[in-house]
Every structure is written in structure tokens, then in C-alpha cells.
Amino acid sequence: MALDKRFIGRKYGPLTYEVGWEKAKEYARAIKNEDPHYMDKDFAKSTQYGGVIVAPTFAVVCAGELAAPFFMDPELNLNLGMLVHGEQAFEFYEVVRPGDVLTTSGVISNIENKEKLDTVSLEGTCTNQHGRAVCKATFTFAIRKRS
Predict the structure, then answer these.
(1) Cα distance between residue 79 and residue 46, in whole Å
(2) Rounded distance, CA 51 to CA 104, Å?
(3) Deepest of 38, 127, 131, 145, by most Cβ within 10 A of its Cβ?
(4) DSSP type of residue 37
(5) Per-domain residue ranges for the chain?
(6) Residue 30, number of CB atoms within 10 A of its CB
(7) What is the CA radius of gyration of the chain?
(8) Which CATH superfamily hosts domain 5-19+58-144?
């Protein structure tokens, strides 16, 4: 059965995530990018940012918080056994720093019904505690149809 396009515009969140210094360092190590902007407080003080910043792709952590309510939405009723990650895209607007409180809101931005699969896109926007957008993330999933 095709995923119903009436779900385009369905909203998730807002969800809040406080960026911790240790989590930001762990993330930088995990992606093998121990740039001193992310790891060294003394170095970072002397940069244009005036302090430590977080790797831009850390946005996947807070934007990814939308996954649980999206995947578990009983009305959407996604067949998780047939769902695969298709692609993701990010737009970055402002640096994130340890201590920032990010609020993420999401919306189903697109649903495409095709012969062998449906695709659904979830778009999330993260804003900081000052109300400024720090990034936009778009996750696209494919749900294979049974033959």
C-alpha cells in the first residue's frame, strides 16, 4: 500500500538538545576530526570564534532526534522492515558551541509514490537559544514495496 501523501506537512517536535562539551569532543573523535577549533579551548580562544565550536556535522545528532517520533508515528505506520536510508543533506547557517541549547522542529516535506517503492523526506530545522537558525537537515527514506 502506498504511503499517503496527506502526511506531507505533518510536524514533529519541537525537541530540545543541550550541546555538551564532552559530547562535542567525543563526536569530533568519532568522525576522526580532532581540529583544535573543536578540541583545544586555549587555541580556540585565539580564533575568530573566540572559543570552542562544534563540528558542523554534529547537527546530525540534534536533527536526528526527530527520527524516533517520525519512525514510531502510529498514523504514518511506516514499515520499518522495508525502510532504508536514502540520502541526507545539510545546510549550515551559524556555528554551534558547547552550551548551546538547540531546538529542532521537523516536517514531512515530500512523499513520492513509485512502482517499487515510496520515498518520504523529513526536514528538520535547528535553532539556537537566541532563536537563530543554525542548520537545516533533510533526510530521505525509501520504503520498498512487497512484490
Answers:
(1) 50
(2) 24
(3) 38
(4) H
(5) 5-19+58-144
(6) 9
(7) 18
(8) Hotdog Thioesterase (3.10.129.10)
Q: Give the whole-number percent of the chain exceeding pLDDT 90.
A: 89
Grid coordinates standing for 98? 558547547
User: Nearest Cα to 25, choosing from 68, 50, 72, 58?
Assistant: 58
Which single residue is written with the C-alpha cell 517499487?
A: 116
The average confidence (pLDDT) of the chain is 94
The Cα 147–Cα 138 span in angstroms is: 28
Strand order in the sheet with 101-113: 11-18, 101-113, 117-127, 133-144, 83-92
- Rounded to whole angstroms, how far apart are CA atoms 64 and 69? 10
CA geometry: angle at 146 spanning 141 and 147, to 5°? Answer: 130
